[in-house]
Design goal:
Order of helices and strands: HEEEHEHHEHEHHEHEHEHEHHHHH
CATH superfamily of the largest domain: Aldolase class I
Structural class: alpha/beta
Shape: globular
CATH architecture of the largest domain: Alpha-Beta Barrel
Helix content: 25-40%
Number of domains: 2
CATH class of the largest domain: Alpha Beta
Distance between the termini: 33 Å
Number of strands: 10
CATH topology of the largest domain: TIM Barrel
């Protein structure tokens, strides 16, 4: 990598030595490099997964699928649960708060031969989810968590099940050690920890010490999530925490070549220079076209507007182009916007670690009335599984 880029990166990080890291084992799957794409609502659909996978091996998880509408066979949910031609392994994240609907959803996925790996979401911090007792609120009630996890594992047959969660709803109610032990006891293949609380949302820095603590507490593989903006961050996390692999979320938004860099550093090589603007635009156009082919052009381009801002962040562009990106309706309109830009621009230093995606402040976590009164209760709340946010 050009020293001008290394000067703003983790210059003190040594690339992997031969045999330093091993593939992460998830059931019968062996994942190398030990890197997982985080489930992100409205983002990690098949078109985005396919773009990321072109840059490097690993495990690429679908956006979160709600168990209840999947059981009901709603067309939109079934489309979100689709995988591309030849896409392997097929990894899907499921959200559910009622063991019955989780069991029925998993039965459907297994009986229809849809998946090779199932991840369960217990980390979503979105208020409309937690105020109904879902997402990050579920680990507060370990008996309910256990029943949901048991329903998934028992019906998944030979398909490995993992669960992903946060440290807790806030620093007063930390639940990640209990959640990890429940996962281990119920037969999960691995766990993933986003090392923030639900109250933090995506604010501040992830607490990697919590990942290390969880790794000491369980014997199944632990995947660390939080603040992987560059490939070297993954090496630092694994060395510091001894976790078995990393989960990459916001760091790859508008930067799918991060997976190429991750493959390089885990294989002991220095990553390539970031692409110049012309290369970034070609990746962006390819992503937009695949999204249009998959969902239909109008829906796809409305969804793609935020992606275009992530791809172009930091590059020199007119205010008119930036404003027009938020009004794009077709792929051809997107292409035409960049006819006269300077494609030779190098990747801007100012954008090397810029935050993308959710960057909101902290929150007071919304919970149902009386939810904390009896944490031993294992009764799912009526309607708590009807609506869901992102992957946590």
């Amino acid at each position: 990598m050009n020293p001008i880029y290394r000067s703003v990166l983790n210059r003190d990080v040594k690339f992997a030595e031969p045999g330093e890291f091993a593939p992460v084992k998830i059931g019968r799957m062996s994942i190398w490099p030990p890197v997982v794409l985080a489930p992100m609502a409205g983002v990690t659909n098949y078109p985005f997964r396919s773009i990321c996978k072109e840059f490097g091996a690993g495990l690429y998880v679908s956006e979160m699928i709600n168990a209840r509408p999947l059981v009901d066979g709603r067309d939109k949910t079934l489309k979100l649960a689709d995988f591309g031609p030849g896409e392997l392994p097929r990894s899907l994240q499921l959200y559910g708060t009622d063991p019955y609907y989780v069991a029925e959803a998993v039965k459907r996925l297994i009986n229809e031969g849809r998946i090779d790996h199932l991840d369960m979401n217990f980390g979503c911090p979105v208020p409309k989810v937690t105020r109904r007792g879902g997402g990050a609120a579920i680990p507060l009630k370990p008996n309910l968590l256990r029943n949901i996890v048991r329903a998934a594992v028992r019906n998944a047959q030979t398909v490995p099940v993992t669960i992903k969660f946060r440290m807790g709803i806030n620093l007063e109610f930390l639940t990640f050690i209990t959640a990890g032990r429940v996962a281990e006891e119920e037969g999960c293949a691995a766990v993933g920890l986003h090392a923030r609380t639900a109250a933090q949302l995506y604010h501040g820095h992830a607490s990697w010490d919590a990942i290390a603590e969880l790794k000491q507490a369980v014997k199944i593989p632990v995947l660390g999530n939080g603040d992987i903006w560059e490939a070297e961050d993954a090496l630092r996390m694994m060395r510091q925490t001894r976790c078995d692999g990393v989960i990459v979320g916001r760091g790859c938004l508008g930067r799918p070549w991060l997976f190429r860099d991750l493959a390089d550093v885990f294989n002991g090589s220095e990553p390539s220079d970031p692409p110049h603007f012309g290369e970034v635009l070609e990746i962006m156009f390819r992503h937009a076209q695949r999204l249009a082919d998959w969902f239909g052009e109008r829906l796809a381009m409305h969804s793609f507007r935020r992606h275009s801002s992530w791809y172009t962040k930091g590059f020199r562009m007119s205010a008119e182009i930036r404003a027009a990106l938020m009004r794009v309706e077709t792929v051809s309109q997107l292409l035409n916007l960049f006819c006269d830009v300077d494609r030779s621009q190098p990747f801007p230093l100012s954008a090397m670690r810029v935050v993308r995606g959710k960057a909101t402040g902290t929150q007071k976590v919304s919970l149902p009335a009386g939810y904390l009164d009896n944490l031993d209760d294992d009764t799912p709340l009526p309607g708590s599984g009807e609506d869901a946010g992102d992957g946590g």
